[in-house]
From TrEMBL:
<dbReference type="Pfam" id="PF09754">
    <property type="entry name" value="PAC2"/>
</dbReference>
<dbReference type="InterPro" id="IPR038389">
    <property type="entry name" value="PSMG2_sf"/>
</dbReference>
<dbReference type="InterPro" id="IPR019151">
    <property type="entry name" value="Proteasome_assmbl_chaperone_2"/>
</dbReference>
<protein>
    <recommendedName>
        <fullName>PAC2 family protein</fullName>
    </recommendedName>
</protein>
Length: 105
């Protein structure tokens, strides 16, 4: 099993990246950490580099997958996952490498 699925080559183009991590859960303070990171990703040049496989890191009795229906009435199953994103900050000294999602169990 490959727990980390990502694009290594994109890291070379980052300018002295700083790792920023925000997980939903106990330490998210009403969603402030994850909301701030989502805002940064929306307002900056960001690139999705990959994700962390949920099978190894989540207790699915604590964090359930979501079942939804698309506009055609087809059922869809969405598993919890953590994403890895590069955030390029033009005009700043350093770029960001962000990990966000569900707190691992």
């Amino acid at each position: 099993v490959n727990e980390l699925i990502w694009d290594y080559d994109s890291l070379d183009s980052l300018n002295k990246p700083v790792l920023v991590v925000a997980f939903k859960g106990l330490f998210d303070a009403s969603g402030s950490a994850t909301s701030a990171l989502e805002w940064l990703m929306e307002k900056s040049e960001s690139e999705n580099l990959g994700e962390i496989d949920s099978e190894t890191f989540f207790d699915f009795t604590q964090e359930r997958p979501l079942i939804s229906f698309d506009k055609n009435g087809e059922r869809a199953l969405t598993w919890p996952k953590n994403k890895i994103v590069a955030i390029r900050t033009s005009g700043n000294e350093r770029d960001l490498l962000a990990i966000s999602g569900i707190e691992p169990h």
